Amino acid sequence: MSIVKMVELSSQSTSSWEDATRQAVERASQSLRNIRSVWVKEFEAVVENEQVTQFRVVLKVAFQLEEGTSARSTRSMGSEEIQGLE
User: So which domain of life are we looking at (predicted)?
Assistant: First the structure.
């Protein structure tokens, strides 16, 4: 049986929403293994002087838990290392 866990992250980029998504996945992969998919829930843009300066996304990252991995170790990975992702 396989179990997938999801964590919610936010990221931003000066280039695009796609780049913000890529950056979130790249950073999350430093702490999480077996990432299977992402779901972008929200898009936001920062406007300064009538120009878009930042593209922001809120997304859910789905990753498959490894066999024999306790829920406690997974929680600590998610809350300690992923929270600072922005």
Answer: Bacteria
What span, in angstroms and rounded, lies between the C-alpha atoms of 51 and 41?
Answer: 23
| pTM, to two decimals | 0.73
Q: What is the CATH number of the domain that holds 25?
A: 3.30.1660.10
| Residue 33, in any domain of the structure | yes
Give domain status of residue 79, yes or no: no
What 3-state class would DSSP assign to 35? strand
Residue 41 resides in a domain: yes
